[in-house]
Design a protein that fits this description.
Number of helices: 6
Structural class: alpha+beta
Keywords: DNA damage, DNA repair, DNA-binding, Glycosidase, Hydrolase, Lyase, Metal-binding, Multifunctional enzyme, Zinc, Zinc-finger
Number of domains: 2
Mean pLDDT: 95
Strand content: 15-25%
Order of helices and strands: HEEEEEEEEHHHHHEE
Low-confidence stretches: none
CATH topology of the largest domain: Helicase, Ruva Protein, domain 3
Shape: elongated
Enzyme class: lyase
Number of strands: 10
InterPro entries: DNA_glyclase_Znf_dom_DNA_BS (IPR015887), FPG_cat (IPR012319), FPG_N (IPR035937), H2TH_FPG (IPR015886), Nei2_N (IPR044090), Ribosomal_uS13-like_H2TH (IPR010979), Znf_DNA_glyclase/AP_lyase (IPR000214), Znf_FPG/IleRS (IPR010663)
Radius of gyration: 20 Å
Distance between the termini: 20 Å
Largest sheet: 4 strands, antiparallel
Protein name: DNA-(apurinic or apyrimidinic site) lyase
EC number: 4.2.99.18
Helix content: 10-25%
Length: 268
């Protein structure tokens, strides 16, 4: 699932391509929007909210999308060949005289009134990259369930919006706790929240996430994606296990030497 900084960058690129321009093409390839007509409308703005994207149109309409695990928006110049993804995966095409935005594999695509955007995103916690970021409120929400494993709590967008599996693993490593440590047993949750904001903000304009400060291949992450490789800090082999409820598990990485706290349950 894309991290919040990835969605922020996607919103910036869509804004640069679409905002202030009139749509000369609008093709929404989902049954519920088959009769929607957006051609001729001006795009006023493109706004990220956690992992959600809001394309705001004139006359008070918003095209809401969510990338989930593998959705993507790609920008092309008029007449440029669309490459890399088959046409049957296209869910939306928004074009103007200068650019074409193509949405692939979008599991959520809906048209709603801009004034009613909260029906789609009102449940979210403070947005780590939003203009109204509220760190104390994010900490408060995390601590409402002190017995919950911190890895699961960080992924819960109702607590704070924007953290995905990469940052979950990296944050737990940097704070020295296993992802199965109860939130209430984590030392100074406010520092973890502040670090989350710092990491996402530092990476929001990049294609890749770098949490170590070292962009070299295989060294950009402390633990994520490095199962069985030596820890960059202590040399211990990085471990991996599943975390979360059945059907919603995420592959989780940690260093058993650098991180203290509970190990995954048997079968995890």
């Amino acid at each position: 699932m894309p991290e919040g900084d990835t969605v922020w960058l996607a919103a910036r690129r869509l804004r640069e391509a679409l905002a202030g321009r009139v749509l000369t093409r609008a093709d929404l390839r989902v049954p519920s929007l088959a009769t929607a007509t957006l051609t001729g409308r001006r795009v006023d703005d493109v706004v990220p909210r956690g992992k959600h994207l809001m394309v705001r149109l004139e006359q008070g309409w918003t095209l809401h999308s969510h990338l989930r695990m593998d959705g993507a928006w790609r920008i092309y110049a008029p007449g440029q060949r669309w490459r890399g993804d088959p046409d049957h995966q296209i869910r939306a095409i928004l074009g103007n005289a200068d650019a074409v935005a193509v949405g692939y594999r979008l599991p959520v695509l809906e048209l709603l009134r801009t004034a009613e955007e909260d029906t789609a995103v009102g449940h979210l916690g403070p947005d780590l990259l939003g203009p109204d970021w509220n760190a104390p409120e994010a900490v408060r929400r995390l601590l409402t369930a002190p017995d919950r494993p911190v890895g699961e709590a960080l992924l819960d967008q109702r607590n704070l919006a924007g953290i995905g599996n990469v940052y979950k693993c990296e944050l737990c490593f940097l704070r020295g706790v296993t992802p199965w440590t109860p939130v209430g047993e984590c030392r100074d949750p406010a520092r973890m929240v502040a670090l989350a904001h710092k990491l996402l903000d530092a990476n929001k304009a990049r294609h890749d996430h770098i949490t170590t400060g070292d962009p070299r291949r295989g060294r950009s992450h402390w633990v994520y994606g490095r199962a069985h490789q030596p820890c960059l800090r202590c040399g211990t082999a990085i471990r991996r296990a599943q975390q979360g409820d059945p059907g919603g598990e995420r592959v989780t990485y940690w260093c058993p030497s650098c991180q203290r706290g509970p190990a995954p349950p048997p079968g995890g």
